[in-house]
Amino acid sequence: MIKFNFQGLRPKKDEIETYSKDDFKFTEVQPDMDRLVEIAGKYGKTKNLIILARGGSISSFRAFWQAQGMYISDKNVYFVDTIDPDYTFYVKDRCMAENSLVIAISKSGTTVDVLENVMSFWDYPMVMITSEGDNPLNQIAKKMSFDIVVHPEIGGRYSGLSEVALLPAMICGLDVSEIRRGAKEAYAEFQKPKNYAKSLALIVKDLSDEGYDQIFWPIYSKKLASFYEIISQLISESVAKEGKGITVLPAEGPESQHYLNQRFFGGPKNMIGIFTTVSNFEEDQKVKAAEEIKDIALKDINLSALSGIPLSKDMHFELQGSLENAKNKKIPAVLLEIDKVDEYNLGYFLAFLHIFTVYLSRAFEVNPFDQPEVEAAKKISFEARKNYKK
Q1: Domain region containing 147
Q2: Has residue 371 been placed in a domain?
């Protein structure tokens, strides 16, 4: 669950005229759980999992993995989202084919650099997640008798609650049923006529009209900071087009305070803050100043004054400093508090991001689902490959 605190900000209107219920059809798509259970069971003992994908086809599972999977799983996971030869060698040097599984993901099946990744890991066991039809990735899978999982008809950045992220999550031991339960409840909550995702989108648009054309999005949780990439992709690809939109700058707090706070507070007054944190950390411990150091001076106190403060409170105090400074400087900022980091809340948070992005896109009167400039760049790079003289 998410607790919203808009810090006194209110939207100027209650509705976004340009969106329709059809925008949320992607929330109705159901993964083929029988197929996921079958594939996960087949490869459940794999030691190394190698994901070949780009954009939303990789960033959602990366968020799940870094938020929860790496803390509970016995797998090694490698995210190959590049054709960088040094990184390709690094992964192959550490992962032998006999104890590894490669999952190649491309909705179209024509993503050139993913196909190049596939050829680089040719001797490894593979599963392909791609659309049905006669695309190259499907043809490779059939010719080589690789397992195929059908990619739903959802764009990559909105596919994180489908087979695309749920299959690797299941293989790594995450509770996929809880991810789906959280997502289902969030999708329902944020499609109600009045909801906080819509209100936040309207507030951001109102502020954009006043010159606040950038979002600073610090996340005060090492685990949840893993969502920075999908946040950036969702908003950048969905909202920023046709000369419209807004720039988003996600970062991990409180580390962001040591560099980005200078920009947020001291730079041009064109940034909105969306501060995000966790209400209940899974673990906690109190700071303790050893006898040998307790009398060392720190500003107007001694180190002994820090003893007994839980680290969770220290995280809260760091966040409090930035929020109050924003208030003092009259910089608009809101606070999102995720209850805790578990599979349910990971699904809930990702589903919120999907819905918020659609509302925000429609508030800017752009299509949330296309990415024309991304496709243009892909065409240029493909032509360069065609014209390369070996």
Answers
A1: 27-174
A2: no
